[in-house]
Amino acid sequence: MGRIFISVSYSEERCPWDIATIVAATSTKIFDDHQERLRIRDRVMVELGSRGFEVLLVPGDLSSTQAIEWINWHCRPGDIALDMQADAQVQTSQQGNLVYYIARNRERKQQAELLLLALTRRVPQLPIRGAIADTFSSLGAVSFCRHVAVPSLYLQLGFIHASHEPSPMQLREQEIALGIADGLAAWYRLVAGPQSEPRSSFQQGEAMAQPPTSPGSRTEQDRCSPIQINLNGRLYSEQGLVVHGNPYIPVDLVDRLGVAWSQPFNTRRIAYGNVVYMKAIELREANLAVFWEPAAQTITIQTLLPIAKQSQAIAGRGEATEVQMLMFLKRHNQTGLTQFPDIARLYRDEATHEGINHDVAFAQMCVETDFLHFGSGLQPEQNNFGGLGTPGGGGESATFPSVRLGVRAHIQHLKAYANREPLREEVIDPRFHEITRGIAPLVEGLTGRWSADRFYAIRLLAVLRQLYETAGWL
């Protein structure tokens, strides 16, 4: 009989690092939302318990990483897991509830939509942003969706407003809890099958002390099934596995593909029949195309892509066309595209002229302006698309007389970090001469220099992969 895990963890990714964000975080009570989510979690537990479901609460003082480890230690086949967060976006105008699911997994997407449907039925007043692949999250992946051993979803409970008014969660806690309970019950029945019946018990997670089920055990073997691996149009000699609806491939194949991981054990791995397997979706981090076809029970991996050989180099040539960049921006902000209709062409022209990868520059513009929503001290009329400052440390953002010159200044600032090559145009960037030329030729070198956000390079690369996904390359 399966159980339902509910987590309300502390996200390590939401700590503000700049002064403006810290001030906004204080005014919007970002750090108080944890208690709200704990109250909703407790209401969900009581409701599901009254319906006979067995609910396990992950200890509420754990970080996201610790919560994942806790669930993986206690879970067993047939369980499902939900993490509830309340994103506090200070910059963006987008608001609403959403569920992240692991990308390229149709079954998990269906489950995410089922959860949102139940929540909408109970609280139709809440805005819904939909079921979203985790590759379109701010970091390009959601650890809870990828690293929890059993089927898992990541529910984002709306956004906290920059005002002192009560949030929708505070006003409708009971209705939201009932909606989540309805969704979890429907999700559980979908995973467990029509024959499953909940039993009348529920418990606090800290009191649960059942040993975990190892991937090699008999029970887990019943949950594994072999799948074919299609590599660049040909069947690979070894088979992969599908576990809880997620495809895995032999780690030896990963080595053959030439994928080098700086932190290999951040990826989800299992041992089965004395062979180590890795979750196939993680290959996307190496810019490889991964497609899961459940009907054919085949995982398709494509390495012959224009982006497969690219590194994080800032200098170089981009691959995205003007149309692809425009469609990507339209998906995120139609209004911004209307206001700056030539933005994609300008980035392509200016970056190519200076020998800078326009894919990287365009992705960074999306990060710095929040897809042209702006905010955080930037206004559209400043034409400052790179979040550039002014000399002297006065805390003011630079302003440029035209869109083209704003784009040019951004490209020049990137080139200052990327190499020591001379500029082909007159210096527009107000802080170009303040930079040690060539100090950060790779995107990862921008973390701690362009921004104090410790996840800055990860966010930039996540947007870059989203651009490639929209273009159909990933």
Describe this entry's structure for a reader:
It is globular and about 70 Å long. It has helices at 19-27, 33-50, 64-74, 106-122, 143-147, 168-171, 173-192, 218-221, 251-256, 322-332, 334-339, 343-354, 358-369, 403-418, 456-470; strands at residues 4-7, 55-57, 80-87, 97-101, 128-133, 152-159, 224-231, 234-235, 240-243, 246-250, 269-272, 275-279, 289-293, 298-302. Helix 12 crosses helix 13, helix 12 packs parallel to helix 14 and helix 13 (358-369) crosses helix 15 (456-470). Strands 7, 8, 9, 10, 11, 12, 13 and 14 form an 8-stranded mixed beta sheet that branches. A 6-stranded mixed beta sheet has the order 2-1-3-6-4-5. The chain has 3 domains: 4-207, Zn-dependent exopeptidases (Aminopeptidase, 3-Layer(aba) Sandwich); 220-302, no CATH class; 322-470, Lysozyme (Orthogonal Bundle), CATH 1.10.530.10. With 474 residues, it is an alpha/beta fold.
Query: What gyration radius follows from the Cα positions, in whole Å?
Result: 23 Å
Number of helices: 15
CATH topology of the largest domain: Aminopeptidase
Q: What's the number of domains?
A: 3
**Strand fraction:** 15-25%
Give the number of DSSP strands. 14
What is the CATH superfamily classification of the largest domain? Zn-dependent exopeptidases
How far is the N terminus from the C terminus?
A: 37 Å
| Largest sheet features | 8 strands, mixed
CATH architecture of the largest domain: 3-Layer(aba) Sandwich
- Per CATH, the class of the largest domain reads Alpha Beta
Dominant shape: globular
Uncertain regions spanning at least 5 consecutive residues:
15-31, 88-93, 160-166, 200-222
The assigned structural class equals alpha/beta
